[in-house]
Specification:
Elements (H helix, E strand, L loop, with lengths): L1 H27 L1 H11 L9 H50 L2 H29 L3 H30 L12 H19 L6 H8 L8 H9 L2 H29 L11 H25 L5 H21 L5 E4 L2 E4 H13 L2 H9 L7 H10 L3 H16 L6 H17 L5
Antiparallel strand pairs: 1-2
Helix pairs in contact: 1-4, 1-5, 1-6, 2-3, 2-9, 3-4, 3-6, 3-14, 3-15, 4-5, 4-14, 5-10, 5-13, 8-14, 9-10, 9-12, 9-13, 9-14, 9-15, 9-16, 10-12, 11-12, 11-13, 11-16
Length: 421
């Protein structure tokens, strides 16, 4: 019996890892889509991030409902629903390219965001539960995050070379191959989950104690929000997603924009390679995090990476512009390398913040995961804010916002995450 349970857990962990890959692959498409929107729809730096905003706005709308679905229907039902919705979202994005309609493109991004929200609501508490919480739970989340980084690394490179040189003729249809691949991933994932046995610890616990009266939705939310470290944690996750997405998204616009706009006029394929390198650095960081996660606390990991991120961005902003490197015949400021290096810092932040924020929440963990998902909307709002800053102050100066967010992350790690007795 114990061996059967162990094998079931291993399979469940594998499925959660696969879902982590899907989340990053589909979410990562919004980065090159921003370049396409700027070219095809003549969008500003801020408005080019609207697809990204729609993708993350879905978290604000569905975050808590997704947590409630997870609580009442379990992991398998929630995951299957999320995968089906994701297929529809990518299909709508493909249709937007066929008809050349910006609003349909935004609708596809919104529907895809609903899917990503539901998947994130499933994978984080599931891996934390399977790992038994604490350092081991954080370690599994970091391992899943490694696969997440692989998907995020591949997407901008793949889409960048599909786009090629950015011109006024650049359009959504240029990345149809990536959209077809995403739909294929969703279809395969649905079948794998459908025919797999996934542990449902919370549903089993509810069946074992049917006489216990459950708290209502508002009572559960209020119960979770009574924990000071959790409230500070959801602020941290709001800022973190803005950091993770804002660094590569604005860097991509910086590299592909014309010199007249203050950009570097680099081909989308080369720029996409640098963006892919950022996500590859996240992969390296997450592999390292998963290796040491059982020995090094989430608090220590978050504090160190936040401080290092501040250091890299200050270098990017203050190093002489004459300090450049040449890759593929393109001269790139060393500032881009510093931005790429930030991937090492953002790599472990999600798992560390989640682990610290839900520590000690007990029965409120599921609803807390849903509340957490609403704050992922930061990945849609903050890049737009940074885009406005880039329009008004220049691309590099817009990174002062990221530094401010990282200062909060550092404070949360050192003080805000401590549980008040």
């Amino acid at each position: 019996m114990a061996e059967t349970k162990k094998n079931s857990n291993i399979l469940a962990i594998g499925i959660m890892f696969f879902l982590f890959f899907m989340i990053s692959f589909v979410t990562g498409l919004q980065n090159p889509m921003g370049v396409i929107a700027k070219a095809q729809f003549n969008a500003s730096n801020a408005m080019s991030q609207m697809g990204n905003f729609c993708n993350f706005f879905a978290y604000l709308v569905l975050g808590i409902p997704a947590g409630l679905i997870l609580k009442s229907k379990g992991y398998k039902f929630t995951a299957l629903s999320a995968v089906a919705v994701g297929f529809i979202g990518v299909l709508v994005s493909y249709i937007s390219g066929v008809v050349g309609n910006y609003w349909i493109y935004l609708l596809g991004a919104l529907i895809s965001g609903f899917s990503m929200c539901m998947l994130n609501t499933v994978v984080n508490p599931m891996l934390n539960t399977l790992g038994g919480g604490g350092n081991r739970g954080n370690q599994l989340i970091q391992m899943g995050g490694s696969l997440n980084s692989i998907g995020a690394t591949l997407v901008p490179i793949l889409a960048g070379y599909m786009i090629g040189e950015v011109t006024e003729k650049t359009q959504v249809a240029d990345v149809n191959g990536a959209l077809f691949l995403a739909m294929g991933i969703f279809a395969v994932a649905f079948l794998i989950i459908l025919f797999s046995a996934i542990p449902e610890p919370e549903l089993e616990a509810a069946k074992a104690a049917p006489a216990v009266k459950e708290e209502g939705v508002m009572e559960s939310i209020k119960g979770a929000l009574k924990y000071r470290h959790f409230v500070l944690g959801i602020i941290a996750i709001f800022l973190y997603i803005g950091i993770e997405v804002g660094i590569p998204n604005i860097a991509n616009l910086f590299m592909t924009s014309s010199a007249a706009e203050g950009g570097l006029a680099i081909a989308a394929g080369i720029a996409g390679t640098f963006v892919g390198a950022y996500w590859f650095m996240m992969l390296v960081g997450r592999l390292t995090g998963s290796a040491i996660g059982g020995k090094v606390s989430s608090r220590t990991m978050l504090a160190c990476t936040s401080g290092l991120g501040i250091f890299f961005l200050l270098l990017a902003m203050f190093l002489p512009k004459s300090l450049v490197i040449t890759i593929g015949g393109n001269t790139v400021p060393f500032a881009i390398i510093c931005m790429v290096a930030c991937g090492l810092c953002t790599s472990i932040m999600w798992g560390a913040v989640f682990n610290l924020a839900v520590e000690g929440l007990g029965k409120y963990t599921s609803i807390a995961s849903g509340i957490f998902m609403t704050m992922v909307v930061g990945g849609g709002i903050l890049p737009i804010v940074q885009g406005f800053a880039a329009d008004k102050l220049g691309f590099l100066n817009s990174y002062w916002l990221i530094i401010i967010y990282l200062v909060y992350m550092l404070w949360f790690a050192l003080s805000g995450s401590k549980i008040k007795k």
